Structures are given as structure tokens and as C-alpha cells.
Amino acid sequence: MPQLNPNPWFFIMLTSWITFSLIIQPKLLSLTPTNTPSSKTSTITKTSPWTWPWT
Question: Is the pTM of this model over 0.70?
Fold first, then answer.
């Protein structure tokens, strides 16, 4: 059965993980986020119940 032969697929998977780990991931981790988190306090809005016209 050809599905059980890991010969070509294991090499492809290994190559893709090595590419991701050594080339793509360091490039992505070196980027700085443009929207840095701020320490601004959130405002609490007061909600009122909905008034239905038929009740």
C-alpha cells in the first residue's frame, strides 16, 4: 500500500519544519508589533434594559 510508505512524505515534512524553524520563524519574531498594548483603564458603560413597545 503506497499510503504506508513514509519515504517521500517524511522528507517533505522534515524539510518544511526545518524551513519554518530556521528561516521563517526568526524573521517573524523579529518584527515589532505596531499596536503596542496600553495601560489605559477601560470605561464601564451603564446599560439600561430594553423597553419593548408592546409590554
Answer: no
